[in-house]
Design a protein that fits this description.
The complex is a heterodimer of chains A (140) and B (391). With 140 residues, chain A is mainly β. Chain A has one domain. Chain A has two helices and eight strands. Chain A has helices at 4-8, 20-27; strands at residues 32-36, 42-43, 58-62, 66-75, 89-96, 101-105, 120-129, 132-139. In chain A, a hairpin with a 4-residue loop joins strand 5 (89-96) and strand 6 (101-105). With 391 residues, chain B is α/β, with parallel strands linked by helices. In chain B, helix 1 crosses helix 2 (64-72) and helix 6 (164-179) crosses helix 10. In chain B, 65% of the residues are buried. Classes of the chains: A mainly beta (140), B alpha/beta (391). Chain B: This is Thiolase C-terminal domain-containing protein. Chain B: InterPro entries: Thiolase, Thiolase-like, Thiolase_C_2.
Chain lengths: 140, 391
């Protein structure tokens, strides 16, 4: 059961061994993708072994930051009190130029009503808290 | 290959009061439904040796099935608290059937209850459900539980021309069905315009495109077909097929956001049952959102891929149509009490197969399907049920 205090707090990523480098990269302004050196698969979701071939030979390379909006939904009713002040905001399912998809958000200040399917977007790294930078996007 | 087809009977069903049930805990709601199911089956609690349940958002018990057993005053030798989000209920029937066929238990209680409406504030209920999204890659962006489903439906509209009016028609039909169902939470008639002018929640979903938040519980007693016969159960309903499919965890790793695991889970269930979608007389389809129903209808084989919108608009999911769906009103209008919500679909389809639905009875209902799904289409489970004649 969730408490009102927990619900009022914004959920923030908690870096672990699989993701520490990824979050450190974002703090530097880079979106790091994992490239499998064994099968060439490219992953957004960071894991200690390749989801396709199981290899642990994975290398981080910075993404171009360009992508397209595969789908989106503009949130008017926030999921609890932590996000109430930010509505309306556009949650994006971005397809990166390199192939992987990711959940993200249109940067604050950009008009959510301009978002459309397949529009091109550009990465913006947004610091949100001590040591946490989120990968957001703006219209390209 | 061995099969579960026809080996397990559902011999008792029960519902607690649903909708707004203030002051009642998730355990009471599940136990109240369990007592009704036991009475329906003509058994007593001491007959039960198996208990399967689902967790409750408004309950502190991690082992809800164990806490429920204690609450009922029984000490089962087979139990689990299952968790695959909205698909949980359908998996409980397959697991219960397998446990009975395999000798792990003789009489299995499947029961769940939650008090999402009065046990939690609306803010806490929404945040609790959103907690199932990924802490690192999804939740920080403020993604409501509705959002993953909204994005799949949104792309479906883009790719197949599904319209807001067709989505709204799903809600209208469910409300019409709920109006005929005693105890349903929302029964006032609504129109397509009402749906489209209700508050936007997350595009393309308005408030009336979204399921309710409710209190309630449901329970079932499962037994072998042999035990059902020796007990003299006359209205037993049999499990004929069951299938599950898990295609991803994160929405951004869903292979296609417009084609779902319902195709795979239902293919397995149809193969076990030896039937196809065109044989199904009545269906329960998880309706957390209007677009979810449209996409599921396609992947369950009731219509061609992309035709779900016109299928609904042309009257195919209500009486006189191809397959009456959610004749109790579903999560959209009957009640949505978290994980117990999809047990209500089972309760209705079983009641239809028993011929016990009064003026909302689907004539000659012999074969029924229930499809449950959850976690942004990550989990899918299909169960096919039938009368003695179909066994």
């Amino acid at each position: 059961m969730i408490t009102p205090e927990q619900a009022a707090a914004k959920p923030l990523p908690m870096p672990d061994a699989d993701t520490a480098e990824f979050w450190a990269g974002l703090a530097r302004g880079e979106l790091l993708l994992q490239h499998c050196l064994s099968c060439s698969a490219i992953h957004y979701y960071q894991q200690g072994m390749c989801r396709i071939c199981g290899s642990s030979h994975l290398e981080h390379r910075a993404a171009s930051g360009r992508g397209t909006v595969h789908s989106f939904s503009v949130v008017h009713r926030a999921p609890g009190p932590a996000f109430k002040d930010e509505t309306p905001y556009a949650v994006l399912l971005v397809e990166l130029e390199e192939g992987p998809r990711m959940i993200s958000r249109l940067v604050a200040g950009a008009d959510p009503s301009v978002v459309d399917f397949d529009m091109t977007v550009q990465l913006v790294c947004v610091p949100v808290d001590e040591g946490v930078t989120l990968p957001c996007f703006r219209p390209a | 290959m061995s099969t579960l087809r026809g080996k397990t009977a559902i011999i008792g069903c029960g519902l607690s009061p649903v909708g707004r049930v203030p002051g009642r805990s998730p355990l009471w709601l599940a136990a109240d439904a369990a007592n009704t199911a036991l009475e329906d089956a003509g058994l007593t609690k001491s007959d039960l040796d198996g208990v399967l349940s689902a967790g409750a958002f408004a309950s502190p018990f991690h082992r809800f099935s164990v806490a429920l057993s204690e609450y009922l005053g029984i000490q089962p030798t087979f139990s689990n608290t299952l968790q695959v989000s909205g698909a949980t209920a359908a998996t409980a029937f397959g697991i219960g059937a397998a446990a009975i066929a395999g000798g792990l238990a003789r009489y299995v209680l499947v029961a769940a209850g939650d008090s999402l409406l009065t046990g939690l504030t609306p803010d806490l209920a929404l945040r609790s459900m959103s907690e199932s999204r990924d802490q690192q890659y999804e939740m920080p962006f403020g993604i409501p539980v509705a959002n993953t489903f909204a994005m799949t439906a949104h792309r479906h509209m883009r790719d197949y021309g599904t319209t807001p009016e067709q989505l709204a028609q799903v809600a209208v039909v469910h409300r019409e069905h709920a109006a005929r169902t005693p105890g349903a939470q929302m029964t006032a008639p609504i129109t397509i315009d009402d749906v489209l002018s209700s508050k936007m929640v997350t595009t393309p979903y308005h408030k009336l495109d979204c399921s309710l938040i409710s209190d309630g519980g449901a329970a079932f007693i499962l037994a072998s077909a042999e035990d059902a016969a020796s007990l003299g159960i006359e209205n037993a309903v049999y499990l004929l097929g069951a299938g599950e499919a898990y295609t991803h965890e994160h929405i951004f790793l869903m292979p296609s956001i417009t084609s779902t695991g319902a195709a795979l889970s239902s293919a397995k269930a149809y193969a076990m049952a030896g039937c196809t979608a065109s044989d199904i007389d009545v269906a329960g389809v998880y309706d957390c959102f209007t677009g979810t129903v449209i996409m599921a209808l396609e992947d369950l084989g009731f219509c061609a891929k992309g035709d779900g919108g016109p299928f609904v608009a042309d009257g195919h999911i209500t009486y006189g149509g191809t397959v009456p769906v959610n004749t109790h009103g579903g999560l959209l209008s009957f009640a949505h009490a978290g994980l117990p919500g999809s047990l209500f679909h089972f309760h209705e389809v079983i009641a239809q197969l028993r011929g016990a639905c009064g003026d909302r009875q689907v004539p000659d209902a012999e074969l029924g399907l229930v499809h449950c799904l959850g976690a942004g289409w990550a989990a899918n489970a299909t169960v096919i049920l039938g009368t003695e004649a179909t066994r």
